[in-house]
Write a structure and sequence with these properties.
The complex is a heterodimer. By secondary structure, chain A is mainly alpha-helical. Chain A is built from seven helices and three strands; from the N terminus they run H-H-H-E-E-H-H-E-H-H. Chain B is mainly alpha-helical. Helix content of chain B is 79%, strand content 4%. Chain B has a two-stranded antiparallel sheet with strand order 1-2. In chain B, helix 1 packs antiparallel against helix 2, helix 2 runs antiparallel to helix 3 and helix 3 packs antiparallel against helix 4. The chains are: A mainly alpha, B mainly alpha. The interface between A and B is large, with 79 and 79 residues.
Chain lengths: 314, 207
């Protein structure tokens, strides 16, 4: 299974000139998400108008709108996932290109590069080794986990759309209340899983930069300089883990509140569970910020290595 | 299978490595402050929600509870506006690394420096991000105004409910646009990597 879906992030052809469809697919999926978002905005405006005119349909419209809104956001996030897969594919082709090109650009007379051991660079602490470093456990986990997360997340959100229809058709009843709890809990766990999938794809990008950088330097007969895991990467992993736990916990807490006897007992819980479920997504998004910042730092370091190899040969 | 050549990219040529363009400089400078502001927004929003839950449990004043609900949304979505801005700025920082790094490698190889001109996807990224940020921040300000109006008793329950629905719709649509902007930003990164793969091979072929 892992081998099968990992083929999605490896180029189908070694030819770097080949056009892949990831970018078009990502934008296409994004357009679907935006259209859904526009539909939800229209539903919300209709509900607001219904409130103003004293009608009785607002609660029903808002229940359906909630389900569709989360579907819209998850669709857009899946589009982001597709764009990241496209980046991973391109990175593999870039590694091959850099390897071939540096072999031609590297001066003939060169040593083996920095001495083996730890060094400080402009981009942070690094380690110099004889051979390319093994992939880190977190990178292996990222490669295994991104696909299940990107599949399970939308499934839960779709299930939430179904329960939102039950919620809309049973406003003011015990069934409706139960469906409201399930909808919110399921859909925010689904969103959390998709964000975790995106985080794992970013982890895979960091892994491929690490392995690719090592492979290029080794192929040129140089000692391999690799950045040590920076604090931003460690914080990224921690934020992602906590965000995922919060996303799972909120579903458990929503289901727990459904065991209460009265609405008066449920209401205070739901008053903080709403922001709590958003906090789970917020932590995952904060982790994504740090992952992107780490990627930028690693790229800066790799360009400085490439430049050094072109100028000095090592 | 369709293939491209380097001539399919629109580039500009310079003799030295180009510097970061303005959005990339902004990205490098602003991703960190935005990240910190996001964490602060989320923390304040969550704490206010606990205070509100306590007031509901204790049978507090309904107007104050309703007003607090507006402030919770304002703080949480201030956090979301900031975190999405941080993501967008981090993407711009990555694009800046590619621009400066790609140029410096070509310069080191004593070649003309060819840099990809800003593609349409990058322009869409910036425009959508700006629109999204304005929509969410406008909704945040309106939530605060709504909270003050509700607390002072100026608004009827119907008006308050209508505004709550409108503002929720606005801020959610803002998030939709932000996510779409981020998609364009990532697509631009893929495009830049593709161009640089072509270019470094071209530079090496001329040695």
């Amino acid at each position: 299974m892992a081998v099968t879906f990992n083929k999605l992030v490896i180029p189908a052809s070694d030819d770097y000139r080949t056009v892949t469809d990831h970018s078009k697919a990502a934008i296409g999926v994004g357009v679907v998400g935006v259209v859904l978002g526009i539909i939800v905005a229209v539903i919300s405006l209709t509900a607001a108008s219904d409130v103003g005119s004293g009608g009785g349909d607002a609660a029903r419209l808002l229940a359906v709108g909630f389900g569709l809104q989360t579907l819209s956001l998850v669709t857009l996030k899946v589009g982001i996932g597709v764009a990241l897969i496209g980046i991973l594919v391109r990175l593999w082709l870039r590694i091959e290109g850099v390897k071939v090109s540096l072999a031609a650009l590297q001066p003939d007379d060169h040593g083996t590069g920095p001495a083996i051991g730890s060094i400080d660079t402009e981009y942070g602490a690094a380690v110099v080794t004889k051979s390319p470093p093994a992939s880190l456990p977190v990178h292996r986990m990222a490669r295994t986990m991104w696909f299940p997360m990107l599949v399970m997340g939308p499934m839960l959100v779709a299930l939430g759309v179904v329960t939102s229809v039950v919620w809309a058709n049973n406003i003011g009843t015990e069934t409706g209340l139960g469906a409201a709890g399930w909808t919110q809990g399921l859909q925010f766990l689904g969103e959390g899983l998709v964000l975790a999938g995106i985080s794992f794809l970013l982890g895979s990008i960091l892994g491929s930069l690490r392995e690719g950088g090592g492979a290029v330097q080794h192929a040129l007969g140089l000692n391999v300089t690799t950045l040590k895991m920076p604090a931003t990467a460690k914080a990224f992993v921690a934020l992602m883990a906590v965000g995922l736990v919060v996303s799972m916990a909120q579903l458990g807490l929503y289901l727990y509140t459904l065991t209460f006897d009265t609405l008066a007992e449920i209401t205070p819980w739901w008053a903080w569970l709403g922001p709590f479920r958003e906090l789970g997504l917020a932590l995952l998004l904060s982790g994504i910020v740090l992952a992107l910042a780490t990627i930028a730092n690693v790229l800066g370091f790799q360009f400085s290595r490439i430049r050094s190899i072109v100028v000095t040969g090592e | 299978m369709t293939t491209l050549s380097i001539n399919d990219f629109t580039t500009e040529t310079t003799s030295t490595a180009p510097d970061r363009i303005m959005p990339q400089r902004a990205g490098s400078a602003l991703w960190r402050p935005m990240f910190v502001m996001a964490l602060m927004g989320f923390a304040v929003g969550f704490i206010l929600s606990i205070v509100r839950a306590g007031q509901i449990s204790a049978g507090g004043e309904p107007l104050q509870i309703a007003a607090l609900g507006q402030y919770v949304s304002a703080a949480m979505f201030f956090g979301f506006a900031a975190v999405f801005a941080a993501i967008s700025f981090a993407i711009a920082k990555i694009l800046g690394e590619f621009r400066v790094g790609g140029g410096s490698v070509q310069e080191a190889a004593h070649s003309d420096v060819k840099t990809l001109k800003m593609p349409g996807t990058a322009k869409a990224f910036i425009i959508l991000m700006a629109m999204a940020m304005m929509i969410i921040l406008a909704a945040v300000v309106a939530h605060v105004v709504a909270g003050i109006s509700i607390a002072s008793g100026d608004w009827s329950a119907t008006t308050a409910e209508q505004w709550t629905i409108w503002l929720e719709a606005a801020r959610r649509f803002g998030v939709v646009l932000y996510l779409f902007a981020i998609t364009f930003g990532l697509v631009t990164i893929a495009k830049v990597i593709r161009f640089q793969t072509f270019r470094i091979r071209q530079v090496a072929d001329r040695v």
